[in-house]
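Hi all, long-time lurker, first post. I run a small reading group and we've been trying to get comfortable going from sequence to structure in the token notation. Rather than ask abstract questions, I figured I'd post a concrete chain and ask someone more experienced to write out its structure so we can walk through it together at our next meeting. Sequence below, copied exactly:
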Amino acid sequence: MTGEDLVKTRRVRPRPLESIMAQNEAYQGLARKYRPQTFDDLVGQEAVASSLANSLRQGKVSHGHLMAGPRGTGKTTSARILARALNCEQGPTATPCGVCRHCIDIAAGTDLDVIEIDAASNTGVDNIRDLRERVMQAPFAARYKVYIIDEVHMLSSGAFNALLKTLEEPPPSVVFVLATTEFEKVPETIRSRCVVHTFRRMTTDDIVRRLDQVGRAEGVQLSEADEREIYGMIARSVEGGMRDALVALDQLLAMTESKPTIEAATRLLGLADQQTLHQTVAWIASGDPVKLLSLVEDLVDRGRNLERFVRSLIAYLRELMLLQTGVDERLLGLTGEALDAARAQARELQPATLYNIWNHVFELEERIKKSPQARFLLEFTLIRLASIKPVVPIDRIIDRINAIPESSFAAPPSSGTTPSHEPARFAAPPSGGTTPTHASRPPEGGTTNPKPHERAGMQRSFAVMADSSAPAPAPAAPRSVGGRELIDELLPQTPDFLARYLSQAKGAELEADTLRLCWDGSAGLARKMLSNPGNVKAIEGILANHFGRAVKLVNVDVAPSPETKPSGGAPAAPKPTPPVMRDSEPLDDDDEPVQYSPLPLPQAKPKPAAPIDNRSALEKAREFLKIDPEVPRRVKILRDMLNGQIIDENGQQLALE
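-- Answer (accepted) --
Happy to help. Here is the structure in token form:
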């Protein structure tokens, strides 16, 4: 049976040879297909490309190069371009032809004179010793033998030491190119023997521009708005790596059959769109936990990566912060309607409120990496942020305090009780040897709770009576109040902030180089403010300017004048004198000691025992819910978070509605 008969029998249609070869040919990804082939093709690394091209034109190519920078920024690609430029048949040249056998073999990775070594899998001393032996051999066919050592920081200390001498004095036809993503881990001895080229992260504009070039070359048809949004999302997600951006675009085109959409890009990258981020910040600012929890539910249902959502939220908060500082909008990653919405939101938020939100989200990012409960942590943080009140600037708080009238700080009028600045006094013992009584002793048939300043006075008086050797306390000598004219002279020279307090002084006394401001109990706040060291210094400066010499300011308290008469013209009653405590008992005319009964101390009545609460846990909970209308809502949130597992002391689930 011939081959044609076999085809007819099996009813198999023969395939053309071209289709079989195309099927067996391996697919080449966009990152490899569009790898730069010349220095002019390097995007975002103009400084490195210019340095290498100029050294080739001047014939001053160093024997060692160290290329450091983040991943996917073109370090290995630049090393291959340098190898092509050195070995091109028209070179050394800054613009390799790309058609000679050396350019083709180096681009395909098959040139025997360009050796690429992965330092991560060749970290030992023996590997470097083998390299040193091969370095001494002449190139097979090319002009230079180029060694490209990738991730060189992975070499061991012994391997670095073995490489030092060869790297410092290699043969004339050998060039070393070292690439690393962690420059600080490369020893100083290696750095000093190489020309260092620093690769920077690609900007969002650089990546978008390159993705647009690749998309047009692949025949991708997109509107201008969709193109800017999709490529911008990819550029922001890769954190400055061009290779990662091309890989993401390749995956997106394969998933959508070369017809990418915003929804597909969002789903692929696991990111939240700008509208979702804008709504999240708005709901946080307005304190709406219900919508925030619904947002988390929607993210989980759509398969979004919550950790990436948090990073996207941080990036959006950064955009708001930059907008509030008024920087050039070219530094932002937002355009079009998204930029207009972010600009309006930045004007509405207080900078302190934005910082507060950012601080909590940063803390969430650190915690969510280490916990398997990503959803719970996100929900907890959003509820916590929704409950935070807007931050009020300290300047506004000070303005509100200054707007409060002084009458609000005045002491309440006296109601016959002992002032807080005077100790409680005892009445003098009456004649006939009766027991002295306390002036504020409670009436018969009931008890009263003394005020804090009265309790302090009672405790000091009891301590004096316990020690019979203590001298009797002498009442403070009253001071006269005068010198109001001097205060009126100083007020025009005093700033308004201090003048409002200085005007409340009862008087002033000038004695030598000391000015005494006299205060009574009704101006407590004013006296406190003018006792502040900074305010005292300011007043003393005014006094020195007024009197022409240094004058010290002293604040003193004054008591009402003894000649003051109460209303009605009747003379004021004399103040009771304190009891005299003696070391020995006084004797009368018959040399019999006068017997004094000890002062009875107030006895506290025992408190009645608290009644026993026999209510069940359900009754207590319902009573608790009636106290504050806010409590049921919080309990509901807590119950939802715990999936309804709220039980009483008997292990039974409670129904709190």
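A couple of things your group might point at:
Residues 306-325 form the longest helix (20 residues).
The chain is about 45% helix and 5% strand.
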